[in-house]
Structure prediction request, 453 residues.
Amino acid sequence: MKKKPKIVLSTTQIIMLSFFLAIMAGSLLLALPISSADGKGVPYIDALFTATTSICVTGLVTVPTVSTWSFFGQAVILFLIQAGGLGIITILTGILISLHKKIGLGDRMLIQDAFNLNTLSGIVKFIKSVLAGTLAVEGAGALLYMTVLVPEYGAKGIWMSVFNSVSAFCNAGMDIIGQDSLCGYVHDPMVNIVTCLLIILGGIGYIVWWDVIRVLKNIRRQGIGCFQNLTLHSKIAIGTTLVLLFAGTAVFFAAEYHNPLTMQDFSLPEKLQAAWFQSVTTRTAGFATLPQQDLTNVSAITSLLLMFIGGSPVGTAGGVKTVTVAVLLAAAFATIQNKEEASFFHRTVSKQAISKAVAVVSMSFIILFTSTLLLSAVTDVDALDAVYEVVSAAATVGLSRDLTPALNLWGRIIIIITMYLGRVGPISLVVAFHTKRVNHHIIKNPVEEISIG
Prediction:
């Protein structure tokens, strides 16, 4: 009798499947009566939406997190956020390491693909460092939040601080403080500073963490080391992040300065603080100190651009990533200047990196266009609100112009799918379903010149 062929999943397919199964498990837990604040349970579509936005660290919600879910439900959401921010594979690997289990080659390849690393060398050490670093930063963030929330809410403020710290570091944007995100703390320096630091640290990427630490150690031990001693990846990630943060702050400050619905009555320091927070949170964090529906069109369009770009690779942020956009711009300027190669800091960018950047941005645009078209077809909403919702979902941001709770069933399903595609990545989707293997070194298509532009 002929044996059935064994189903072998690629690492990309396993990663996508792990997120899907986590969403299904989370939705079933959140649908239980024990998860709801009233003990009656919530409609399954809301449980599914919440599980998806949690594991995809997006932050869009159809029901208020603070009043809908019980402590058990909030704990489920927090676990999903942590698992989504670090990655399911990272959590499972951490458990295996704590149990002193051997991490095989297959597991190492999964981790490599999950973090988009270039080598298998030092994978286990990398995971240990990620888990330890995450715990340390989230713990510090929780303690700082407690200085504000414990005096205000008592013992309950401890849980709120832990929840907010994990959510901010994982760039999830969900909170259990109020129904208007952090708008009530728009003038609070501690909440603003801690939240911004957690968002930036989570979104800058773990690779940059270790590289900066390496350079700082060299300064302390040998008296050498500065920006130029960082790797090319870190230079691009840090440089692009700083440019976007300060440019975004300047635009929001100018656009909202006289807006009576947002910052008109703020003092100058308060305006700068609010503008800075808006620039930081659009890096896929999803917290809001200003009502997004009250922003001027200039601020809304700027937010769309910043959300689309997102954070940096190998971190907790979403979007097409800072390095991706920087590489595309470098390639574009190289072409304009008739240069054969794109470069940064006297280093040549590989053709493979440019091709991948083009693929990521192209596929992201396709997802955004399709989702916006479908959402507009099934709901009667303003075009800007629809685009804002879709970009926020695809880039796993979580900012909304107060549209999410008003979505109908089909609208919610579209946003659920968009969040999932945004979290697993558009390229991963294509790779996962492209199972045909061809030796491209043997079979090549003929080359023919075409005109561009």
